């Protein structure tokens, strides 16, 4: 992507990565003993986590366990307090939030402006924006005001905007939490489609990390589940192992109790 690396922030080392080799595995994201403090609040405590290109990883855990903080730290939106964090430069990442943010302009321009700001000539940016809208089946709404769309449509525009940027890494913070079941299904289908195939022919597979309170969604979209409690990673398992209570109980009693509570 040739983008500028993140500046080093806060008390911890933060270095940009492309896919790197380490301990025999390729890594796109590597956190080593990362902590994030907000004053007296310890949002992340000694998190060590490696994510390889093409993985689809769900972050789960109760309110305030640190999911958003982890995503925001990887995206470079907040400073880490200690430890080392390696991630692709922000220009190689896209992040979606529970409530999509839209510029006060048309749907197509919402996507094109982001590309233009990254150096894509305006005519090409508009053409790529339209392609991206076709991908999420919203091309007929290209000239509509983005803020006038429904929440589900806005989230699809946000996904199109992310996809148009051809990121290596897609971070999503509870992307369907405020959507009705139909819109949730449409957004999930796009998430699945984007991670199922490279963003463009010959490109590296897209890596997806998402926070969710929806265990059905986790089962449908994740290949791996990371369970957080009070800022610590207590379980990090392939999705089928996470939902196998015997395996989970052996790894973390706390994670098993959480799952039991959620399944009641
Ligand atoms: N900017 C901030 N300033 C102070 N405290 C913060 C800030 N952001 C997060 N926190 C605190 O850090 C902890 C972790 O919050 P975080 O938002 O990462 O949790 P979460 O797992 O995403 O929660 P939820 O599921 O409710 O969205 C919480 O105690 C939260 O109150």
From TrEMBL:
SMART domains: AAA (SM00382). Keywords: ATP-binding, Cell membrane, Membrane, Nucleotide-binding, Phosphate transport, Translocase, Transport. GO terms for biological process: phosphate ion transmembrane transport. Pfam families: ABC_tran. Residues 1-23 are annotated as: Disordered. GO terms for cellular component: membrane. GO terms for molecular function: ATP binding; ATP hydrolysis activity; phosphate transmembrane transporter activity. Residues 29-255 form the ABC transporter domain. It comes from the Bacteria. CDD domains: ABC_PstB_phosphate_transporter. Residues 1-11 have a biased composition (Basic residues). Belongs to the ABC transporter superfamily. This is Phosphate ABC transporter ATP-binding protein. It comes from Ottowia beijingensis.
